[in-house]
Every structure is written in C-alpha cells, then in structure tokens.
C-alpha cells in the first residue's frame, strides 16, 4: 500500500490486491490508527 495523494482532510491510497485463490473477494477492510508520538521536523 502506498499514498498517492493527500490533503489536510483526505488520503488517496493505492495497492495491488493479493492472490485470491480464484475466489471472489467481497470487500476490503481498511483500518487506521493515529500516531500520537509522531515527531515533526
């Protein structure tokens, strides 16, 4: 997964789906977590 664009309120992501075993994928679930310890600079 990589970030392909961002604004102050959104992020655009891109990824290559994994091998599905020839099964139909019904959905992807994306979760996020804020990093309170991020240092700026």
TrEMBL record:
Gene3D superfamilies, per database record: Immunoglobulins
Alphabetical list of CDD domains matching this protein: FN3
Domain Fibronectin type-III residues, every copy: 1-41
Coiled coil: none
Pfam family, one: fn3
Organism domain of life: Eukaryota
Region annotation Disordered: where it falls in the sequence: 1-20
The protein's name in its UniProt record: Fibronectin type-III domain-containing protein
